[in-house]
Structures are given as structure tokens and as C-alpha cells.
Design brief:
Layout (H helix, E strand, L loop, with lengths): L10 H6 L5 H24 L5 H40 L17 H15 L4
């Protein structure tokens, strides 16, 4: 029985070579926007609710978002590497290695937005 190259791969290998790594990069600005909304909401209700309610919102909800954002920033190293290979194979755009600076906390949101913008211009997806 002859198997094709695509069907002989495991699901992880198929995802590794797919063009969906941009979703990890998209999670960086989305999580930042979610953290910003939670922080503004908490600051807005802080004077109307007891201190422990706003403290729980800040500590658990915003803290959980920050923890997820840190994990996504670390995963962005793999995502940028894999997506750069995909983009180089499917378009004329050659993303530089500087996009790996997405790991740095204060730079990750603008760099992720720039990467997604240029990826959209050359690939069309997101």
C-alpha cells in the first residue's frame, strides 16, 4: 500500500508544516487587549465594590491573562520560526529574524502587529 507524504505524518507534524502558526502570533495583541479591558473595568468599578472584589479581579483574572500572555510570548519563538518558513515558501516576502524579538514583553505587541500586517499584505491570511 502506497501512502502519500501528507497522510504518513502525525497530526503534530501536519500542524507544524501548516500555515496556522500566525494564530499564536495573533494571540499576543488579543491577550493584551483583553488585559487592558479587564484593567480598565477593574479601575472603573474599584470605588463602587469592596476592595476584595476588585483585588480578586486584578489578581486572578488579570494575572491569569498576564500568565497566558507570557506563555504565548515564549511559544512565539517556535511560531515565528515555523511561520517564517511557511511564508517564504508561499510568497515573495522574506521575514527577517528580527521578528523573534516578539519574546520581549514591551516589544511583543507592536512587533506582532507589524508581522501580521506584512503577512496579510503578502499572503492574504489573517
Amino acid at each position: 500500500m502506497v501512502t502519500t507524504e501528507l497522510s504518513s505524518r502525525t497530526p503534530f507534524e501536519r500542524y507544524l508544516h501548516s500555515g496556522r502558526w500566525w494564530l499564536v502570533i495573533l494571540a499576543i495583541p488579543v491577550l493584551f487587549a483583553l488585559w487592558l479591558v479587564v484593567t480598565i473595568f477593574t479601575m472603573g468599578i474599584a470605588r463602587f465594590v469592596p476592595l476584595n472584589v476588585s483585588g480578586y479581579l486584578t489578581m486572578y483574572l488579570a494575572g491569569g491573562i498576564i500568565l497566558m500572555s507570557s506563555a504565548v510570548a515564549l511559544l512565539s519563538l517556535v511560531a515565528v520560526y515555523s511561520d517564517r518558513q511557511y511564508v517564504r515558501n508561499h510568497s515573495a516576502w522574506k521575514p527577517t529574524i528580527l521578528y523573534h524579538l516578539m519574546v520581549i514583553p514591551l516589544l511583543n505587541v507592536p512587533i506582532a502587529c507589524l508581522y501580521l500586517y506584512f503577512r496579510h499584505r503578502h499572503i492574504g491570511i489573517p
